[in-house]
Protein 1
Amino acid sequence: MTRDFSRDHRWLSINTATVRAQWPLDRIIDECAARGIRAISPWRDQVAQVGIGRVAERLRATGVELSGYCRGGMFPASTPEGRRAALDDNRRAIDDAKTLAAPCLVLVVGGLPGASNGKPEHKDIAAARRDVHDGIAATLEHARAAGMPLAIEPLHPMYAADRACINTLEQALDLCDALDPRRSGSLGVAVDVYHVWWDPKLEAQIARAGRDRLLAFHVCDWLVPTRDLLNDRGMMGDGVIDLRKIRGWVEAAGYDGYSEVEIFSSLDWWQRPGGVVLDTCIARHRSAV
Ligand code: ZN
């Protein structure tokens, strides 16, 4: 039985990138709390801007909790120093996630080194994937010690070069099985409908993931046409993703956590008042998710 989201929004979380253009993170927390939104997933740059102490204080004062923390990852590098710097950065992300009592650290694993700056240092995507494997393996020790699960987020293949060379749920789960064969709970996946909705193996791979690998569920919509590869995500109900069907698969596999709205939208939602965006998220979460 898929949960009924139509009557309240108790399972709604807001990924704070959704209103990053309008407000700083402390204001976002207060605006969410005022609307009865119980959870957020903040980004590290937003936390750094306000200060982690202030963020922790607003979370305590409002009772808002985290559905995830964005983000670790970006493991591939073309030098040993680069790979070490990535591991150091992931350890800091784990510690901050712990401070904020996040249930998991989301990993955007990285693509070809340098590609995100427009200067790819090589063309060997297999090497990048080896770096991701080794980087997660090394990070997992610290994550286990801290009690902070890592959630690999497969990204749509259009981001394979510059953001993440893990592009399907199957690929992410293969990595989980290789690095955490005993399903210890310390490694799983974040299922973001924007990245995986098109995948013919999606239903089977969600079932394969099961409750102990499903650590986060992100929603938005795929607009037709999509005008920008990164920042033209749609509000739920405005695009072509069968959100309720996918949520049904995720819940059939045992997932019973938050459904996190994550919308990057420089052409539309980032230009509207933040209150309008949050109110629309609540309404669409009821009607379209
Ligand atoms: Zn996501």
Protein 2
Amino acid sequence: MSNQTAQVHLDGQIYELPIVESTTGERAIDIRSLLRLSGHTTYDSGFMNTASCESGITYLDGNNGILRYRGYDIEDLAENCVFIEVAYLLINGELPDHEELEKFKYDMIRYALIHEDMIHFFDHFPPNASPMSILSTMTGSLHDFYPEMDLEEDPYGGMTTTTARLLSKIRTIAAFSYKKSMGLPLVYPRADLNYCSNFLNMMFDRPNMPYKIEPLMVSALNKLLILHADHEQNCSTSTVRLVGSAGVRLYPSISAGISALWGPLHGGANVAVIRMLELIYADDCDFDKYIGMAKDPDNPYRLTGFGHRVYKTYDPRAKIIKAATHDILSQLNISDPLLDIAQELEYRVQKDDYFISRNLYPNVDFYSGIIYRAMGIPTNMFTVMFALGRLPGWIAHWQEMHMDKESSRIGRPRQVYNGIVKRPFVPVGQRG
Ligand code: ACO
């Protein structure tokens, strides 16, 4: 809390409201007492400018393109860590030492299997079921198959084992859902493979076509998952916190987060980007048409992969992913026309006043799909990949919310009612 206050003038009265200061110096007006003191609420649809909690997990400066997990720059983590180290950092607040990391890796292997009865679930989804609906359903059901996993083992000392189990099992579910959708035999996790290699092997190994694990792919996957691991109070994370605030346990809360992520304005954007690039390609690369549609105020069409609620400059994650996309494609000698389309679109958008004046830059989803394609991951699995990455962030926020008395209050926004004030009841036969 800072010593300063803000004054609100209402109906001839002045109300002094406290100002809260973040560790990085940003200030927020604490309006919690305003309703009690003045009878006024505040209106902020879409939470454009409302902090719903205090959080020490991720720092984001959207004007300067800075993203840090627990104080570490995203660039350093993406360059030097494996995904599970970063998951450990987000959830426990510190990077693991050698022994802690080895134990965490061991737990990943130990808990990688899912209950065999869960495998029958896959048989009862329709053949074209979305892997996101499968993932959300199966994650919610972990609560029943592993009730002991959903108890806070040590709420004030971290949830390392619970986390390892969840990260590991959801990875297995994701790979199994892909195999089932292809009608292929399941490939079980192996004890000799690390987190990302195991995932790629479960996805692509076949009895008649053994999968060769390519270190470049493993390193790219680590990077992508790290870059998606947390992004403070985004839609899916806020969903996990809101659902969890009602006392819902970890797994169903995560399942709600997966559903929120699915939307095309959020994690589903990586699928929508590829669809858009394919459409432009099939339309003789008519960039002007699509840019024109996106600029037309009477057309709801948008260029997916551009713009962000918080970043008003280049998304730092998009910068890293763009460079990694070039590396992978050139080192593996893969040519993808969609990369050329993406680069040309970005070039044109960056010269266009409409996009410049609104600070619309590529976001994390713009290039990620092109790397996933190079890895052989099908488009309908892209948002599942995002969910695998975001899992540690959701867990960290769920845990933080429960450990903080203030933000663990049940989430319950106010509204400005704009319906009919009151009218007399009319029985059914007399309604005209
Ligand atoms: N293409 C064209 N115009 C855009 C775009 C876009 N991608 N994004 C925003 N705009 C325009 C809006 O039309 C609006 O213009 P106006 O001021 O003339 O009305 C202005 O820019 C501001 O846009 P808002 O919708 O108010 O911004 P908001 O913060 O609510 O939305 C969002 C952010 C949803 C990401 C938006 O930029 C968008 O729809 N982008 C495309 C979808 C996408 O890529 N989503 C992934 C986001 S990253 C993630 O969640 C992982």
